[in-house]
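A reminder before we start the practical. When you read a complex entry, don't treat the lines as separate problems. The point of joint prediction is that each chain is placed relative to the others, so the output describes one connected object in space. Small molecules and nucleic acid strands, if listed, are placed in the same frame. In the example below there are three entries. Take a minute to note the order of the lines before looking further.
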Amino acid sequence: MPHIKPILAALKRHKAGTILIALQIALTLAIVCNALFIIQQRVTRLSRPTGMDESNLVAIQNRWVGVTDAAAAGVLTRADVLALRQMPGVQDAVQVNAFPLRGGGWSTGVRVDVDGKKPIAHTTQYFMDEHALATMGVKLIAGRNFRADEVVTTDPDKIQTSPQAIVSKALADKLYPDGSALGKPIYLGDDRTPSTVIGVVERLQVPWGAAWTDDFAENSVILPVQLTGNFSTYLIRAKPGQQAELVKAAPAMLTKLNRLRVITGDRGVRTFEVVREQAYKSDRGLAILMGVICLILLAITAAGIVGLTSFWVGQRRKQIGVRRALGATKHDILSYFLTENLMIGIAGVVIGALMAVGLNLWMVTQFEMARLSMAYVAAGVIALLLLGQAAVLAPAMRAAKVPPVEATRSV
Amino acid sequence: MFAYYFQLGLRSLRKNPVLTALMVMAIGFGVAASMTTYSVFRATSNNPIPQKSSQLFVPQIDNWGPEDAATTMGEPPPAMSYTDAIGLMRDHKAKRQTILYPVGVSLIPADANLLPISERSYAVYGDAFPMFDVPFLYGGGWTTAEDDAHAAVVVISKAFNDKLFHGANSVGREVNLDGRNYRITGVMDDWNPQPLFFDVVNSSAFPDPVQLFIPFTRAIELKVATNGNNNCNKSPANDGWEGYLQSECVWLGYWAELPTETDAKAYLQYLHAYSAEQQRAGRFHWAPNERLRNVMDWLDNRKVVPPESKISLLVAMGFLVICLVNTVGLLLAKFMRRASEIGVRRALGASRKDIYAQFLIEAAAVGLAGGLLGLLLTGVGVFGVSLVFDPRIARLATLDVSLVLLTFAVAILATVLAAFYPTWRAAQVQPAWQLKSN
Amino acid sequence: MLKMTHLAKVYRTEVVETYALRDFNIDVKEGEFVAVTGPSGSGKTTFLTIAGLLETFSGGQYHLDGIEVSQLNDNARSKIRNEKIGFIFQAFNLIPDLNVFDNVEVPLRYRGMKAAERKQRIMDALERVGLASRAKHYPAELSGGQQQRVAIARALAGSPRLLLADEPTGNLDTQMARGVMELLEEIHREGATIVMVTHDPELAARAQRNVHIIDGQVVDLAEDPRFHHAVHEARTGTPA
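Here is the predicted structure of the whole assembly.
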């Protein structure tokens, strides 16, 4: 390891170049740390399980045409569900008001105490019948499913408190942290009468995938209610291998059943794979964009280091020749440049780490974002120092190859 | 002299192809990243109705009270209850005004072989058309008399007109909506304000174009429910449609046209007086809390620009800065490598100004090349945006003439800016230096 | 043409002041061919850089073609260098990226000359040094003597009033040196004022007048014993 003092002295004479490389390393570190962090957050979100068995699911959104009476539409909807369950290739089907990652649904506060003013938790409400668990493929871990006679059909404006409710484990644990929620009362919204928890499912995500739902992402209540109205949504579980066929056959069957309906648009008929893709499109996209930007950024920073170090080596050929003539080994020259780069790199990453944290703190105030984990800063610091050493290697090796005779050349 | 320096610049750039390529790539990538994300940002933060954005206002009235407002930092609900919307409409204090909400109506084609069609539709007052500067191909909006009469009239889009009437003037003809006939009063020309400013509450802000408008009064009479959001702070006291209309559920948009600042001030006072009146009447148990925002303030308040677009714009700007720092370094290396040439030129009579000109022009040539590469990459980037953003937003990001020009301008300006320090260093080279034989 | 009176040049560092030139007096008349000689470190190159307005000086006066130059700014000095002075360097100092034609063109460019006139002058100057056929060659493709002739052509192209040469044959072998020297003599015969710095007594002897610098001052040639020695060397052609 060469002495540090003479390197510092030499760097003082190349202030501009030194500052530029350090600054570039600092800025790159600041951006790469934050970008990696954003990627990690997005990837975590988009790989979050819904709790359903997502393969072989198909979702259909239907609108009745010219039916203004909600009850009349409800009858048509019921006919659809029954017809779907009869279809070959269909394992089970259910009419829902919403499903995980659909992007729109109901949510409300929950209390466990009738006089409790503040809700203990926020939850989504799914209105489904006794086919819900089988169709979605969620796992019941305690209690029982709804019975057919518990399901009520109602107008959305006239919903009554359901005596029974199935809750997700996340919500159950939040409401009754000290024991099983089974058999206990919950109060939804401004209800004065309780719903009793008759079952707990392992996991069931809310209809939204966005950041604002992060603090209640798995708080779900399923209520034995079938909503009427001229808008209906069906979730269908295809028999294995029948999904692709069903995507075409199901809407065709429904249209044949009743022509006065609209099943169109990019949300008309979707496999759950498409639902997931659409729900997380911007998360995935941002992660890809950040990844691409990080890679190019690191490449450009490396290129900058190669460029400037090459210039320095070129400028100091004679000096290097003199050193070689005075007995410096190739290894001495190589380690001189590597140490020089390491020192600039350390200065850069120190500033960069501060900038990374500062940038993150600012972004936290501007966007829905979490605090940057120090592990990312540490990883970024190591990555950039290694990058710097790798980038400087080629010009440093060229410097090491300068022959001692260079000392005697005049130009 | 410009041509001479430009030629010298090109020659010098050819001399060090690797260094030149590094610089051109740094600038190209930096510019492309920032331009691509800027194109999305520009599209999402677009003023959809520039000629009138300062005259169109959204009033907000707090009909929920401070307990709910506390969760939104004092903001009244972003939509209106039927009671308040109708109250404001009745008072008619603005030059023009409309209540609006998205309706899920379906069109049943006369041809029995065709399936019903359901597209984005709104229920509005006749004032909406002149208010929003809706362009008409044939006919126009409906009259106040037709509003009052709950008339079965409709305004359809050009696309609908092309589909149903093969582009012919269909004014006066009828279409079947949900089993009822409506008389066409007008056919809109292409009209697709982005963001869809008048309904950012219910739409994704960048939805497909609006295809149908029907009278608000008609929709209410037919009990057509909103196709958008409905928010209630408590369950309606009475059942049924009437109960719903009387409730404090908020689901309606309201727009007022107030041509001058004085009008806007007066209207805000009116909103205050209206709320105070509701308090006196015992409906509100809290002090008046109202807002009045014009189009751009409203879009800002509703956070229409997606955070993805803001974050990536931010990152791309940082990216451009890093690329520039990189370019400063490389240009410095490139220029100082030619210290001897500069010394000779200075000895032969080049003034500092000449050196500045020569090297800045050389940098501009790098910028131009970087701009070309940047343009190419921006093209790729804009294409790739569909991977990154919701396709409804991505399709707004286009590589138009202004973006092309901006790409070049940013590339050249940024490079010349980056070249200032290296050029200054170059101009400091003393003519005497190189006279001595090293 | 070139007149320095009581001129001083001080190099200051934090610790010491070094006089490169002190009370320096010289007067070169129009049309003279003056050789400046002196030992290494005597200040002859400093004299040349100041004469050529490449460096400023610390005290005294310098009149170039009747103009007092000490108060001129960088731009004005650049203009004088461009229009009145031609430089011939020991290391040729051709710009390697430019071909012969473009190298000769450099000073003419800064004068803002029309293309046609530039071309005429460049070809005339190259003709003069016998390199018209090499106009498209790059410096690296030429011998040392040819390179120096290009440098001379570059100095001549602008028709300068004063030609300053710093060891013009220093990097050349004897035969090439002779050719360059003959060219300079020819240029002088045509009326140019030439000041040439050299430590080669043989070259110095071929000038009209010799000025000897020792320790930053012009030494009276007749009174300094070292001069006689130098003259003797020049006559006999034996190196010191």
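Discuss with your neighbour: The two ends of chain C are 33 Å apart (CA to CA). What might explain this?
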